[in-house]
């Protein structure tokens, strides 16, 4: 049975699930087995008290969560014989052990236990593992103490707890969902039924009290009650309960019970003769008492540091208890762990002098090998913006692949993964099947659980999921770099450091120079400013990739999927960038629409016409004669881009590419607009109007529309997440972008016919 970590949602590495077991015979009054109908009645599903071996306690709230989850499933939850996917059944599919449904009818809480019925189904008689119906009902009737049940659940955030003395207690377990109730032969780490509220030994005799004289100190008894001991329990029952504890709970209990009566008497005598001194709470403590307090405080601090080491290096509760009881200092334990890790790393197969360099380069080599196989561009990127570095012709610069990429290039994905596991020093890799390889490399949690010694490379950025993520990132960036973004031709790219409101100011032109008479003072003027505001928006979408990619060697998935995601991001950019044209929203300068008669940049419906020499002449005149904010300086703006819907593409290209004026019969009628404007055909405009067209100035002459990105994330961002219950990997792409017109003077709109 896997052990859940404290202080966070615990998992056993197998689908984010935790398994808690307890004997079926402890079901309490009313437990019975009907072999003919296959019904197990009134079975105890889970019991309040310490979850020994799991590092948390089962409290009343957890019982309520379990019962609520079971009652929320009309058909009940699946019931299996044993847990597939663990131990010797790690390669088995859970359907091989499916026997029926648990929680048929209402799950209820009785005397600190969740109880429910389990109903076997007819398919339990003929399973790939034999007649499990006969087997389970037989054990249930003849030897119920030999069989237990184990819940499989998705954990929620565990609840931290302390006692009245601020002593750290094991956290209280929390449940998001119960997914199965399985029959097991050994009730987890609880051969005596330690998940029930309390039990006497089989022979009926209690174990010795921690004090040795049949009495128990109140502090210890209060702690035991807080973790599940019945409030009415006798000292003998409490001592028996304490003797069965393990891990954190055992350590805490022993710390509360380690003061013999003789020492307590001695402490009282010392306290009576010592000079009293007030502590922080105003109480008078003797030197002996202060020493006791200091010792226990030091023990708590030492235990906390040891627990941190256990979490960092994947050690279990038993190891933690052994280190605490040994009396070793934190530094001594840390030194031993580092020696142990060094020894494990030395055992990595095929590694000698210089092997660390090979290991470090493995991830890049495999990543580049996959890129070469799928023809993903290996480009150079700016380390800050992550935009592709381009050559003099505007093409992305190509970098060299890793020197070891060629040796992996011809291998199937599963064989690349096998080589990765070989380098980790994993035993028996060459006999692993493709599904087994895929399960291990796609789930780092599973890898650590089954091979806890192989942690060096698996904890680093060389882990195989990271390698696959790196390939996806390279593919996404390459597809983004290779694509043509229409908005980049005509609008400004900028960035903002955060999501706060972006404020852009435009200043009026400097005043015209005027004649200054000799001795006269220089005239000074105040510039007028206007402000436009907007904010960034994040867009996202995700795609799931299953382990079948590795099993089936679907190498092209690393190219197809990111290319699709990159195209989606570019579509979003164009949508955002050109939206201000059709939205025609009010400007901050005067609260009038971007294209408005008062702005001298708009030809309304009924007065407009298609692009022609005449309409372009009129548009250019309007832009050249625009004045600054104060209405004084002529700006002489030159249009550079003609932006039109797809419906006008033929008209636009004919006008801008013809030597003569389109539609005239005079061979000598020269077309003055040939090559004067850059056409931008944008089908997003067609949804609003198939006749309207726009002119735009160069953005470094005057502000037009700016497209803003989050600083440091100017390209699409890829985030991955492993789904622990399936081994699938989710690839989510996020892109943060916004657009805003800054000045209407550099833009012009004609509604057309």
Structural overview:
With 753 residues, this protein is an alpha+beta fold. It contains 20 helices and 27 strands. Among the domains are: 18-197, no CATH class; 259-279 and 286-346, no CATH class; 355-482, no CATH class. A hairpin with a 5-residue loop joins strand 14 and strand 15 (284-285). Strands 2, 3, 6, 7, 8 and 9 form a 6-stranded antiparallel sheet that branches. Strands 16, 19, 24, 25 and 26 form a 5-stranded mixed sheet that branches. Helix 7 runs antiparallel to helix 8 and helix 13 crosses helix 14 (444-450). Helix content is 33%, strand content 20%. The radius of gyration is 37 Å and the shape is elongated.
Briefly summarize what is shown.
This protein is of the alpha+beta class and 753 residues long. Among the domains are: 18-197, no CATH class; 259-279 and 286-346, no CATH class; 355-482, no CATH class.
How is this fold's topology laid out?
Blueprint (H helix, E strand, L loop, with lengths): L17 E6 L8 E3 L4 E9 L1 E3 L4 E3 L1 H12 L5 E4 L17 E5 L5 E3 L2 E8 L11 H11 L5 E8 L3 E4 L5 E5 L2 E10 L33 H9 L8 H9 L3 H11 L3 H13 L3 E2 L5 E2 L1 H26 L4 H10 L3 H17 L8 H20 L30 H5 L3 H12 L9 H9 L1 H7 L13 H19 L3 H5 L1 E5 L5 E6 L21 E6 L2 E9 L2 H4 L5 H27 L18 E2 L9 H12 L14 E6 L4 H9 L20 E4 L11 E5 L7 E6 L6 E6 L6 E13 L5 E4 L3
Parallel strand pairs: 16-24, 20-27, 21-22
Antiparallel strand pairs: 1-10, 2-3, 3-9, 4-5, 6-7, 7-9, 8-9, 10-13, 11-12, 14-15, 17-18, 19-26, 21-23, 23-27, 24-26, 25-26
Name a few traits of the molecule.
753 residues, alpha+beta, six-stranded antiparallel sheet, 20% strand
């Amino acid at each position: 049975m896997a052990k859940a970590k404290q202080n966070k949602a615990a998992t056993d590495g197998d689908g984010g699930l935790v398994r808690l077991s307890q004997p079926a015979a402890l079901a309490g009054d009313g437990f019975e087995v009907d072999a003919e109908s296959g019904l197990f009645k009134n079975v105890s599903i889970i019991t309040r008290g310490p979850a020994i071996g799991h590092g948390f306690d089962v409290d009343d709230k957890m019982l309520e969560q379990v019962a609520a989850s079971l009652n929320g499933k009309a058909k009940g939850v699946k019931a299996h014989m044993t847990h597939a996917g663990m131990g010797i059944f790690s390669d088995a599919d859970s359907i091989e052990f499916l026997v029926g449904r648990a929680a048929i009818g209402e799950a209820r809480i009785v005397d600190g236990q969740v109880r429910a019925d389990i109903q076997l189904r007819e398919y339990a008689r003929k399973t790939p593992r034999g007649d499990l119906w006969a087997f389970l009902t037989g054990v249930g009737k003849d030897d119920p103490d030999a069989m237990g049940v184990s819940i499989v659940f998705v954990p929620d955030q565990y609840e931290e707890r302390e006692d009245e003395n601020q002593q750290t207690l094991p956290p209280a377990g929390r449940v998001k969902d119960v997914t199965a109730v399985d029959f097991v032969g050994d009730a987890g780490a609880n051969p005596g039924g330690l998940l029930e509220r309390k039990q006497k030994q089989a022979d009926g005799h209690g174990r010795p009290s921690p004090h040795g004289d049949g009495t128990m100190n109140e502090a210890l008894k209060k702690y035991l009650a807080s973790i599940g001991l019945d409030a009415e329990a006798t000292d003998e029952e409490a001592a028996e309960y304490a003797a069965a504890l393990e891990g954190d709970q055992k350590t805490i209990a022993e710390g509360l019970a380690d003061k013999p009566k003789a020492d307590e008497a001695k402490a009282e005598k010392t306290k009576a003769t010592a000079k009293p001194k007030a502590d922080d709470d105003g109480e008078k403590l003797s030197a002996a008492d202060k020493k006791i307090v200091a010792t226990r405080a030091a023990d708590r601090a030492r235990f906390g540091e040891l627990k941190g080491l256990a979490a960092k290096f994947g050690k279990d509760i038993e190891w933690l208890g052994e280190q605490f009881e040994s009396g070793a200092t934190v530094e001594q334990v840390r030194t031993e762990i580092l020696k142990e890790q060094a020894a494990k790393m030395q055992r990595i197969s095929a590694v000698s002098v210089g092997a660390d360099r090979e290991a470090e380069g493995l991830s890049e080599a495999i990543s580049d090998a996959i890129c070469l196989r799928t023809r993903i561009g290996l480009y150079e990127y700016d380390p800050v913006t992550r935009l592709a570095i381009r050559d003099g012709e505007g093409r992305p610069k190509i970098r060299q692949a890793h020197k070891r990429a060629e040796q992996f290039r011809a291998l199937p994905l599963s064989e690349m993964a096998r080589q990765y596991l070989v380098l980790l020093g994993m035993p028996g890799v060459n006999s692993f099947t493709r599904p087994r390889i895929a399960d291990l490399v796609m789930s780092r949690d599973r890898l650590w659980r089954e091979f806890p010694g192989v942690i060096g490379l698996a904890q680093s950025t060389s882990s195989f999921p990271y390698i696959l993520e790196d390939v996806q990132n390279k593919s996404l960036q390459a597809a983004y770099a290779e694509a043509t973004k229409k908005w980049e031709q005509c609008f400004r790219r900028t960035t903002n450091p955060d999501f706060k409101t972006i404020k852009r100011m435009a200043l009026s032109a400097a005043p015209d120079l005027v004649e200054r008479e000799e001795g006269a003072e220089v005239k000074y003027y105040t510039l007028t400013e206007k402000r436009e505001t907007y904010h960034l928006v994040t867009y996202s979408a995700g795609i799931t990739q299953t382990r079948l990619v590795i099993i089936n060697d679907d190498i092209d998935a690393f190219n197809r999927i990111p290319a699709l995601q990159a195209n989606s991001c570019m579509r979003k950019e164009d949508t955002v960038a050109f939206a201000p044209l059709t939205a025609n929203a009010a400007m901050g300068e005067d609260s009038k629409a971007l294209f408005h008669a008062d702005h001298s940049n708009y030809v309304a419906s009924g007065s407009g016409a298609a692009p022609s020499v005449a309409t372009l002449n009129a548009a250019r005149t309007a832009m050249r004669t625009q004045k600054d904010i104060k209405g004084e300086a002529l700006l002489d703006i030159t249009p550079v881009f003609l932006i039109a819907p797809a419906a006008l593409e033929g008209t636009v290209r004919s006008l801008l590419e013809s030597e003569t004026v389109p539609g005239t019969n005079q061979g000598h009628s020269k077309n003055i607009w040939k090559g004067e404007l850059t056409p931008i055909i944008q089908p997003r405009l067609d949804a609003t109007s198939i006749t309207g067209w726009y002119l735009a100035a160069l953005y470094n002459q005057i502000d037009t529309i700016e497209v803003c990105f989050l600083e440091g994330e100017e390209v699409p961002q890829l985030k991955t997440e492993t789904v622990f219950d399936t081994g699938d990997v989710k690839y989510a792409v996020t892109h943060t972008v916004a657009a805003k017109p800054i000045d209407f003077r550099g833009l012009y709109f004609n509604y057309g016919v």
